[in-house]
From TrEMBL:
It comes from the Bacteria. Its EC number is 2.1.1.222, 2.1.1.64. Belongs to the methyltransferase superfamily. UbiG/COQ3 family. It catalyses: a 3-(all-trans-polyprenyl)benzene-1,2-diol + S-adenosyl-L-methionine = a 2-methoxy-6-(all-trans-polyprenyl)phenol + S-adenosyl-L-homocysteine + H(+); a 3-demethylubiquinol + S-adenosyl-L-methionine = a ubiquinol + S-adenosyl-L-homocysteine + H(+). S-adenosyl-L-methionine binds at R41, G60, D81, L125. It comes from Limnobacter litoralis. The lineage of its organism: Bacteria, Pseudomonadati, Pseudomonadota, Betaproteobacteria, Burkholderiales. CDD domains: AdoMet_MTases. This is Ubiquinone biosynthesis O-methyltransferase. The gene is ubiG. Pathway: Cofactor biosynthesis; ubiquinone biosynthesis. O-methyltransferase that catalyzes the 2 O-methylation steps in the ubiquinone biosynthetic pathway.
Length: 237
């Protein structure tokens, strides 16, 4: 796990996730939603990019929940993050699970200076709403992806409904997430993310929503993108 100086990063966001680092792999902790949605997003990615044998980059990997699951699908995975404590947890967990994942403490922007056009698949999930300049991160992901490769992003829409569901509901009523996890002004509309991908030279191919039912306590993929959503892109070539 190599260390690098932070770039496009909010120190308060790093501190927030570092404080919770020890809980990454506890499915009943503040990271429970990530554990519950991971099979949905993993399968959605795998159905489009067929991860087996692919060189994959997981940007903003945190404790390695998605990174490990992609490795178990047969991918050669590099997970990167700037939260040192989260990466240490990821390193320790892979010793228990046997997952073949490499981790580095480096930003996507810095890695793009080293490894342009190197990855078959790039994932950046639940991360764009936590950086100062999401467009810069999208551009770095595009630079890192091979021509013809796949890129997947997920974030939260910005509208009154997402404020009610993602902040008031999830953080204050249902206690699905710690209070202060998200800042409404950092949420990103699908049209804004689509433009960022096009500006980075990518082809926007698909969008899907993630919906939570508070009664059944079950997440599912849906056409509704009012709150949480994922997009798939291709790099031409």
């Amino acid at each position: 796990m190599n260390q690098a100086a932070p770039g496009n990063v909010d120190p308060s966001e790093l501190a927030k996730f570092s404080a919770l680092a020890s809980k990454w792999w506890d499915p009943n902790s503040e990271f429970r939603p990530l554990h519950e949605i991971n099979p949905l997003r993993l399968n959605w990615i795998h159905e489009r990019a067929d991860l087996k044998g692919k060189k994959v980059l997981d940007v903003g990997c945190g404790g390695g929940i998605l990174s490990e699951s992609m490795a178990h699908k047969g991918a050669d995975v590099l997970g990167i993050d700037l939260a040192e404590k989260s990466l240490k947890v990821a390193e320790l967990h892979k010793l228990e699970s046997g997952a073949q994942v490499d981790y580095r403490m480096i930003s996507a922007e810095q890695l793009a200076g080293e490894q342009q056009n190197c990855f078959d698949v790039v994932t950046c999930l639940e991360m764009l709403e936590h950086v100062p300049d999401p467009k810069q991160t999208v551009k770095a992901c595009a630079d890192l992806c091979k021509p013809g490769g796949w890129l997947f992003f997920s974030t939260i829409n910005r509208n009154p409904k997402s404020f009610v569901f993602a902040i008031v509901g999830a953080e204050y009523i249902l206690n699905l997430l710690p209070r202060g996890t998200h800042a409404y002004e950092k949420f990103i509309k699908p049209s804004e993310l689509a433009k960022a991908t096009r500006d980075a030279g990518l082809e926007f191919t698909e969008i899907i929503g993630l919906v939570y039912n508070p009664i059944t306590k079950v997440y599912r993929l849906a056409k509704n993108t009012d709150v949480n959503y994922m997009i798939a892109c291709r790099k031409p070539g």
